[in-house]
Amino acid sequence: MNKKLIALAVAAASISSVANAAEVYSDETSSLAVGGRLEARAVMAEDASGDNQVSDKSRVRMNIAGKTDITDTIYGIGFYEGEYTSSGTSADSGNVNNRHINAGIGGEFGQVVYGKTDGSLGMITDMTDIMSYHGNEAGGKIAAADRTSNNLAYVGDFDLGGNNLVVKANYAFEGAKDANVEYGDGYSAGAIFTLDMGLAFGAGYGEQDVLDGNGATDETQKNAFGGISYTIGDFYVAGLYQDSRNTVADKVRGYEFAAAYTYGKTVFVATYNYLEDKTDNVDVADSIAVDATHYFNKNFRTYASYKFNNLDSKDVGKAGASDEFVLGARYDF
């Protein structure tokens, strides 16, 4: 049994390169580490006209993590992560996204940070969001529950006699913007309880106001998630349920099932995603995806991923109903 590879499979899509970061400075009280990833991704799918196209979805992530001891039990932390993506054109100007910019304090009580940082529901959707590329179509989160700026967040990780409890809570203040949408105040909270025999339960909830052009509340987005997972030997299985309001539709319900198996240095993963607009009884997502990821070592992996799209092109167009095939290679440092 390769527990390290199973852990990588469980967090494959969300794992950052912090675990592989290299310490570039340290003294008696402080340290600084630099890490990241270089990832080449070729996506093959049909466009709106039905022609097969290959799109370059390559990306680079860089992160800097700092830590300094304040007292014997309290420490200060700071973290930055940026991502550069290629548009795949010959005159490529690319795009830079500052994914994380935050700082705070930590101790036996947990960590409290402020800035652009994760919300509290990502750890719930991560229970099934384990693929190298596809998946997580039923795991869409509101901004306050995902990753947003102007965000005050807490996380605590507690050992309960061999069992483990992770608790997250965050409050996103008014003013954050996403794709020209202006948000009011929002919050999210979640918890995952893991038994020492490999069974884990997770649940979380989030709300956020969406403002109109005059600064008044136009609607309130709501997310509710429940998750369960089980790890035994080289096998991992998990399920996710979502019930949301005013997100991609007025009323949305969906689920994702995921399974992973580790064979030597290769991890095989399959997921099923279904998301339905309950207001209009329209499928938003319906797909089966499979992938295989081979870990040559802790720094380098390659993968192939295929999504069988079950949506009807009459409803969403040829591009929206197209299957996808992805080849990728990733170097972590």
TrEMBL record:
<keyword id="KW-0732">Signal</keyword>
<dbReference type="InterPro" id="IPR023614">
    <property type="entry name" value="Porin_dom_sf"/>
</dbReference>
<feature type="signal peptide">
    <location>
        <begin position="1"/>
        <end position="21"/>
    </location>
</feature>
<dbReference type="Pfam" id="PF13609">
    <property type="entry name" value="Porin_4"/>
</dbReference>
<dbReference type="InterPro" id="IPR033900">
    <property type="entry name" value="Gram_neg_porin_domain"/>
</dbReference>
<protein>
    <submittedName>
        <fullName>Porin</fullName>
    </submittedName>
</protein>
<dbReference type="InterPro" id="IPR050298">
    <property type="entry name" value="Gram-neg_bact_OMP"/>
</dbReference>
<feature type="domain" description="Porin">
    <location>
        <begin position="7"/>
        <end position="312"/>
    </location>
</feature>
<keyword id="KW-0472">Membrane</keyword>
